[in-house]
Design a protein that fits this description.
Shape: globular
Strand content: 5-15%
Oligomer: single chain
CATH architecture of the largest domain: Alpha-Beta Complex
Number of helices: 12
CATH class of the largest domain: Alpha Beta
CATH topology of the largest domain: Aminoglycoside 3'-phosphotransferase, Chain: A, domain 2
Length: 354
């Protein structure tokens, strides 16, 4: 709940979201506050976040400041499950910001068919990997491990594991051909289009060379409840200490080690597309110790996430298929990461599993 970190981190945090949701009408603040005790009268309500899953507002009242979240999905049962999880996690010492309960004891307020939740306002700042010391990197890995082990204690068993199927390079080759036609066919080609063409041709050659390394189908990797969106924009620091993990909208059952690898690839990526491996190593060792995860589990997760990145062209799909250029400035670093990770594959594996 502070100014955002680097644009690279911002875009890497949620690459699957194609467009920002349209701005909803201003929340009925006065009517909403009547559902709560001791929150005071509204003084101001300013938007602070806008996304696919929710809209956020800083609400100031005569009794203090709050974060007001408008949940766009409107699934009350799912929202309440997220709320119960944070309430229970707080009792176990996980830094979170559980919602304020209404006068009726509910944490979800429905007005005009829209779902709202009120949270305490947490003063803090976001920090990416460049701002973290080796000690802070260890603390980060231990924190994510704590999240995973505590979720295992507070959540009901998740759904049965599904068969794992990795991206098929045949599908990726077809997508590359599509994107090359679009990049080469621009009426007024830009420097971006030239880089896109270069990276597409380069990636096709990489995939042809490494197609035999596609993760085989089979049983889903070891899964558990995870935050689902653990990255710098969802972690607030107060000084050097984590103050709150926020935005639990993607709480779900996934391979835990993959969340650890994806988070590190966002926290510790440099603008040039390289990972700060010394910090990754400190982070991963602390995560493995806190989560009780073995080196082989992390190594397997590194392989699956690497393959996923090698087959992913989300920025180019936004630009050429959705006519959405918001992520264009991130393409140079994101595309470089896939190439660098392939070249330094053994070093990356060693950093996570060594």
């Amino acid at each position: 709940m502070s100014p955002l970190v680097s644009p690279l981190v911002s875009a890497l945090a949620s690459p699957a979201v194609p467009r920002t949701a349209p701005r909803a009408p201003a929340p009925p603040v006065r009517l909403l506050l009547r559902r709560y005790r001791n929150t005071g009268e509204a003084l101001s309500c300013e938007p602070v976040a806008q996304g696919l899953l929710n809209h956020g507002y800083r609400l100031r009242t005569t009794r203090g400041a709050y974060f007001l979240k408008h949940h766009l999905d409107g699934d009350r049962d799912t929202i309440r499950r997220q709320h119960r999880a944070t309430q229970r996690l707080q009792t176990l010492g996980v830094p979170v910001a559980p919602p304020v309960e209404g006068a009726d004891g509910d944490t979800v307020t429905v007005l005009g068919g829209r779902c709202y939740a009120l949270h305490p306002w947490i003063e803090g700042s976001h920090r990416d990997g460049a701002q973290l010391t080796a000690r802070a990197s260890r603390r980060l890995g231990g924190l994510l491990g704590l999240v995973h082990t505590c979720l295992e204690r507070v959540m009901e068993p998740g759904p049965a594991a599904l068969a794992y199927v990795s991206p098929d390079p045949a599908d990726t080759f077809a997508l590359i051909d599509q994107l090359l036609v679009l990049a080469r066919g621009r009426a007024r080609r830009e420097v971006f289009d030239t880089l896109a063409e270069h990276r597409l041709v380069e990636r096709r050659a990489l995939l042809e060379r490494h197609a035999h390394r596609r993760p085989p189908p089979g049983a889903e990797p070891a899964t558990g409840w995870v935050h689902g969106d653990f990255h710098p924009l969802n972690l607030l620091y107060r000084g050097a200490e984590p103050a709150a993990i926020i935005d639990w909208d993607r709480l779900g059952v996934q391979p835990r080690a993959e969340e650890a690898v994806r988070a590190a690839a966002i926290f510790f990526v440099r603008p040039t597309g390289e990972l700060e491996l010394a910090k990754v190593r400190a982070y991963a060792r602390a995560y493995r110790k806190a989560a009780g995860a073995g080196a082989s589990e992390l190594a397997a997760a590194v392989h699956r996430v690497w393959w996923e990145r090698l087959n992913d062209f989300w920025i180019l799909r936004w630009r050429y298929m959705l006519d959405d250029r918001r992520a264009d400035p991130l393409f140079a670093a994101v595309s470089a990461l896939a190439v660098w990770w392939t070249r330094e594959y053994e070093a990356v594996c060693e950093a996570f599993a060594g």
